[in-house]
Amino acid sequence: MKKKIDPTLFDLCLGILLYGVVFQIVLLCFTRRADYSLGLWIGVLLAVAGAVHMWWSIDRGMDQASKQAARTVGTNNLLRYLVLVVVMFVLIYTDFANPIFMFCGYMGMKLSAYLNPWLCKIRSRVIKI
Fold this sequence. Notes:
mainly alpha
């Protein structure tokens, strides 16, 4: 059986990706450094993965008793932030990508959450999910 994607999750991920594209265009107007762009897209991918994980943990927590649900969601929240901190430290110590732009890419989740009502209105006119 094919399960439909959650429209709110789709809007959130779409907003994160649109944020990444717009940020990349602005970034290219100022610099062509590959480590800046790589950091940005690592952050965007972490934001999308974090949004999907957040949806999954909340969905999983809804099927549990109150105390167990709070523990499960809290543990998954800490796990998400631990992954973010580990990736940030790896980028700081390896110079593989820029950690500041990784953080900027991750903040796309916040901006996408704020713009979610607007994105939902546009998506409902263009794509029927």
